[in-house]
Amino acid sequence: MEPRFNLLGSPTAAKVAKRFHATSLALFASTTLPRALLELVQLRVAQINGCGYCADVHVKEAVAAGETPLRLGLVATWRHTTVFSAAERAALAFAEEGTRVADAAEGVSDTTWAAVRTHYDDDQLGSLVCLVSLINAASRMGVIVHNQGGSYQPGAFAALD
């Protein structure tokens, strides 16, 4: 599959991409959530949405944040593993349900909402809501234009600043 379009080659899309990046920087700079968790959540959303580029980005950024190959390899099957904490499992369930809103009439279930409320304070929960929303938008853009994974270098988005 070949890329269809270079979003950064479009003046308007490039401006939007820079603002997306600035928004994610604000989130990462302000949240108390561990960077590795942020990357795991984004990786799971990228997997669900089928965005190879976003999966590439978040695997490599997770490694840079100290994540292990074992845990990265098991993100897609996290429910059937022993390597994620209860808090991480709640965040991954939240990411999945927040991504698959068309698949479930209620979106994020009350059970999942209660689980994330147990493990995360209001600011952290707000960060998760924003993170899941942002990565869903970004990964959908990548799928639409057929962005390919495999060539991302950690820290490459710093050039957008």
From TrEMBL:
<dbReference type="InterPro" id="IPR029032">
    <property type="entry name" value="AhpD-like"/>
</dbReference>
<feature type="domain" description="Carboxymuconolactone decarboxylase-like">
    <location>
        <begin position="15"/>
        <end position="97"/>
    </location>
</feature>
<dbReference type="InterPro" id="IPR003779">
    <property type="entry name" value="CMD-like"/>
</dbReference>
<protein>
    <submittedName>
        <fullName>Carboxymuconolactone decarboxylase family protein</fullName>
    </submittedName>
</protein>
<dbReference type="Pfam" id="PF02627">
    <property type="entry name" value="CMD"/>
</dbReference>
<dbReference type="InterPro" id="IPR004675">
    <property type="entry name" value="AhpD_core"/>
</dbReference>
